[in-house]
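Notes from the 1:1 (GR / supervisor)

We went over the backlog. Supervisor wanted to see one worked example end to end before approving the batch request, so GR pasted a single chain during the call. The sequence is below; no edits were made to it. Supervisor asked that the structure be written out right there so they could see what the output format looks like.
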Amino acid sequence: MTTITLKPKKEESIKRFHPWVFSGAIAKISGKVQEGDLVRVVDCKGDFLGIGHYQIGSITVRIVSFEDKIIDRNFWADKIRAAYLMRKNIGVVDYQHNNAYRLIHGEGDNLPALVVDVYDSTAVLQAHSVGMYNIRHILAEIIVEEIAEVENVFCKSEGTLPFKAPVEPIDEYLIGEKTDCIAKENDILFYADWLKGQKTGFFIDQRENRSLLKHYAKNRDVLNMFCYTGGFSLYAMSGGANLVHSVDSSAKAISLTDKNIEMNFANDTRHKSFAEDAFKFLENIDGKYDLIILDPPAFAKHRDALKNALQGYKRLNARAIEQIRSGGILFTFSCSQAVSKEQFRLAVFSAAAQTGRNVKILHQLTQAIDHPINIYHPEGEYLKGLVVYVE
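Structure output shown during the call:
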């Protein structure tokens, strides 16, 4: 196994169990190494720090073990078993009411660059590193062995691997085959489209936030911006909203929303959908709604776009705060990892100040509990949200 030696004083974060080794921390690489290989990481004195997958880029090694042990099939099985046990222990795995959950959340489950979502009997695997992609068949076999309900494993890594990775990934079934699925979240049904949909087919990370929205939806006029498959809209309908309007620039997304609404609330006239640009739609909604959800796609996928992203969040929230009905409630989110909680909160504060309205924070939100944040890897807290009351 190739050894990577760090520069003096560059081992401190690794000793604190942070799982990333950056290229600038590396003094030398002893031996030949290819992207995806397992490598040993040592400090400048040669003392062991960890074992991880090597990749070309700013993050050069993602640590999979801080113990000097054999990384074999049993190692991966232990990790997946531990992740599943946690979901069982916290009550996420409950097929009577909820058969959709995240099984593996990358660094949060000490499996860097690996995401696995389960929808009923199908697990959808996404590798974000060549190392994880290379062992996808082993991972799929373990998942089916460890989780009785899972019969199929679909690998959806074509768009998630590093751009210059020396592989040609394809999206494919690794085990079994199932082309459609009706998943269940808190007894609400939705179509999960892992073949053509975004991410793994649905945004499971908003489960608890959707449940909170249901609490506030009764007798309110609701606007769900960037609705995608209509998750928040479904919960608002279930919570007794007077009306629910769903907006997305994608006609395909609106079609999925309509299908999900029809499956759960057939012939319910409270819902209407619009395939329109969000900013354009928000130009003339003054006083029409008293509950608005802003859940846009990531405005900043890297730090170079941070400034423009913060301006985008400020502009979007200002329009909503300015036009929401008095006594209205705004659920607003950022899923941009490059945007910190403090930066997002400042953007919403600036938006509120621009409108001159009295705004109070009711809740500060994050991702669902099956998207755990490794306490040694705070970067894993990618989803930020606020619920504010506008007087």
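Supervisor's comment: The CA atoms of residues 153 and 252 lie 25 Å apart.
Batch request approved.
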